[in-house]
Design brief:
68% helix, mainly alpha, single chain, two-stranded antiparallel ribbon
Length: 279
């Protein structure tokens, strides 16, 4: 979604003003939102879902063991991400893949290990995400992904990403369980919802920032539904591909795309005029 709007529009908009004192001499830390962005995002979500199942069940680590391992790996990668001076495709997308697993595990631990209802986790994660956005905007006066160029903004960005995955997991599981659609129909439902957001943005003028983050949340249950459909046994409504094959296949595609973007830099955000922005 790359619809451009004026900075003078009401509410939190991308590309808003920022205090010069808070700026750092570094470039933007996130990629341009292109078709590559959405493809890799969905694939990372799919890998996150199947890899978590693989490590938990096949490797015998259990939900708690996987949570500790993935959280530790994420912490290491985020340190590397924060130390970079500009967007680096490999580091950024590795962080997204790991944070997709950790966000999923937060929801799964609450529901599976602690017995918290999905209605509760969905509501709580929604509130927490809203608080992150409010605090982010009150501090920075922008929620633009084109201006993730200070440490403070990057902290808010990754917190938002984490809780979009947690919210998407809980909301997706809630919808799937309540409606009992199965993996394939669930994927179609979430794809249709994303298409609806795109139509609202491009045809009806829905704010670019909220269009982006709404679609970002919905890609999590979409990717998870695709991953489950491909990996789960036929008796459970899947194609029986298994978590190993599915994880390796999607990871190979992600790596190929990330290498391509690292070489071509097609997803590097170009400097924009101060009066215009896009998401």
């Amino acid at each position: 979604m790359t619809h451009e709007t004026s900075e003078t529009s009401a509410g939190p908009v991308a590309g808003g003003p920022s205090s010069p004192a808070r700026r750092r001499s570094r470039g933007n830390k996130v990629p341009e939102v292109t078709v590559y962005f959405w493809i890799i995002k969905v694939l990372c979500t799919t890998v996150g879902e199947t890899a978590a199942d693989l490590l938990s069940e096949k490797a015998g680590l259990g939900l708690t063991g996987v949570s500790v391992l993935m959280s530790a790996l994420l912490a290491v990668v985020l340190v590397g991400q924060f130390r970079t001076r500009a967007y680096r495709a490999g580091v950024y997308w590795l962080a997204v893949a790991l944070i997709s697993v950790v966000g999923t595990l937060i929801s799964d631990n609450l529901t599976d290990n602690m017995g918290v209802p999905l209605e509760t986790t969905t509501t709580v994660f929604g509130i927490v995400l809203a608080v992150v956005f409010v605090l982010w905007y009150r501090r920075e006066r922008t929620l633009s992904i084109h201006s993730i160029d200070t440490t403070g903004r990057e902290v808010f960005y990754w917190l938002a990403v984490l809780f979009t995955f947690a919210l998407g997991t809980s909301a997706g599981d809630l919808v799937s369980e309540r409606m009992a659609l199965g993996y394939w129909l669930s994927a179609v439902l979430f794809a249709a919802a994303i298409a609806g957001v795109a139509i609202a943005h491009f045809a009806l003028g829905l704010d670019a920032v909220w269009s982006f983050w709404t679609a970002y949340i919905l890609t999590r249950p979409l990717g998870a539904s695709i991953g489950d459909y491909l990996s789960q046994p036929a008796g459970d409504g899947g194609l029986g591909g298994g978590t190993v094959v599915t994880s390796v296949l999607f990871l190979a595609v992600v790596l190929g795309l990330v290498v391509y973007l690292g070489v071509t830099r097609k997803d590097v955000i170009a400097p924009e005029p101060a009066a215009r922005h896009s998401v």
